[in-house]
Amino acid sequence: MTGGARREQPRRLLIATHYLLRIAGSEVVAYETARHFAAAGCQVSVFANAANGPMAAMIEAVTGAPVITDPDRIRPFTYDMVYVQHQVLGLFDYRVSADDRAMTRMVAGRLSRWSYLESGGWLHDRLLLDHVLANSELTAEHLATIGHGTPTTIFYNAAPAAFFRPFVAKPATPRRILWISNHRDPALGEAVDRLRQSIVVDHVGEQGGQVTLVTPEMIAAADAVVSIGKSVPYALAAHVPVYIYDHLGGPGYLDADTVGQAARFNFSGRCCERKLTGEALAAEIVGDYAKGVAFARDTPAAWLERYRQPRYMDLLLDAPLATNAEKRRRLLDSPFVMQERMLAAHLREDLRTRQRLLQQIRVLDSRLKALGAAGGPAAA
Q1: Using one digit for the tens of pLDDT, what is the confidence trace for 214-234?
Q2: Of residues 169, 158, 160, the one with CA closest to residue 239
Q3: What is the separation of C-alpha 195 from the centre of its chain, rounded to a whole number of angstroms?
Q4: Which long-range contacts (CB under 8 A, 24 or more apart) does 194-199 make?
Q5: Which of 14, 63, 134, 341 is 20 to 30 A from 39 (CA-CA)?
């Protein structure tokens, strides 16, 4: 693309991931990607090995179609663009089809260096991908270490444009705190109980909170955000003080001394392995608030641009590095593709088996509660 000419929007986009169940990290990345391109006028199809719960309904609401769970329905080369998470490329049909595109831009989001499903390095990545979006510096370094070789951009778990807002003056001490977490760290839970004696603390997430998508309005309404990972760029974009702490510990309020290392570890809290008691956490969230406000107020706009999602979505619009005919030839020429397809199928069946077992447990639990309410087995 040259001379600033506008790139043509792809007509069809496939988003493929392992599961769409909870409102959590990888699911939210897939959802935000789907919402971005649906709003741009693309026809968006979404595949997952397992889809249920709130996230599946949210995906359907933005795409206008249910999540596809049958891999036999997926022919990646019939799409203009494919965005994939986890290791699902080995499930799909790459045979010649009358609907094939000559070229399909294939991009993977790699969201962890720890998770086998998310970290990359599979053969299908090397044969098919045109670009990789790594969620952190450490993930990108991991991909380089294992010899991935595909062009890689760090996307910093970026936030949609709606989260970006100018700084708004804050009170001397926080009056409303937004706690975002799907975990239940005992010390942080104790800290929240202490804080709630004088401060409104809204909890979004599992383990006792409101299970919902975090919105720009929620972030903007908070005097401080307590969270890790995916939610931290939301607070940064809105110039809201953010206190990083959860089950892995954390550095507390970001400032010039801590932000570099915290960002390198994707704001997971792993950057310092610092654990505090509930009493100490509550005291620090209030006592260090001025430090958090100063950093939120003075964060340079140019630096914050790394957390703006649309700039990374544009990378999915670039030209593919190889034709689909060439990618298909690579698959046919590789002697190990079949083994990897079997592994992808095994991972799919393992997930679906676990989902079936969980559903059976829920049904049995419901029946036991009903028997108890009716007076026990004798009443039944």
Answers
A1: 999 999 999 999 999 899 999
A2: 169
A3: 29
A4: 194/278, 194/279, 194/282, 195/282, 195/285, 195/286, 199/173, 199/174, 199/175, 199/286
A5: 134
HSE-CB for 366 with a 13 A CA cutoff:
6
β 105-110/131-134 pair status: parallel
Question: What gap in Å lies between CA 15 and CA 113, rounded to an integer?
Answer: 21
Residue 220, exposed/middle/buried by CB under 10 A (0-12, 13-18, 19+)? middle
- pLDDT of res. 8: 61
Task: Name the DSSP letter for residue 106.
Answer: E
HSE-up (13 A, CA, CB side) for residue 9: 11
CA distances from 36 to 9, 28, 41 (A): 12, 12, 9
Give the number of other Cβ atoms within 10 Å of residue 64's Cβ. 9
| 310-357 tens-digit pLDDT | 999 999 999 999 999 999 999 999 989 999 999 999 999 998 898 889
DSSP 174-189: -SEEEEE-SS--HHHH
Q: Give the 3-state secondary structure of residue 46.
A: strand
Q: Which two tokens stand for residue 27?
A: 């699911």
What are the helix (H) ranges across 251-336?
A: 259-264, 278-287, 289-298, 301-304, 310-313, 324-333
pLDDT in tens, 259-304: 999 998 889 888 887 999 999 999 999 999 999 999 999 999 999 9
- What kind and span of H or E run contains 233? helix 232-237
Structure tokens at 64: 């206008």
Tell me, what amino acid is at 244? I
Query: Three-state DSSP class for 81?
Result: strand
Structure tokens at 197: 């004696």
pTM: 0.89
Q: For 116-169, give the DSSP string.
A: TTTS---HHHHHH-SEEEESSHHHHHHHHHTT--S-EEE-TTPBPGGG------
Residue 52 is classified by DSSP as -
Residue 353: how many CB atoms within 10 A of its CB?
A: 10
**Confidence check: pLDDT of 119 > 80:** no
Confirm if 310 and 161 have CB atoms less than 8 A apart. yes
Rg of the chain taking only CA atoms, in angstroms: 23
Confirm if 243 and 228 have CB atoms less than 8 A apart. Answer: no
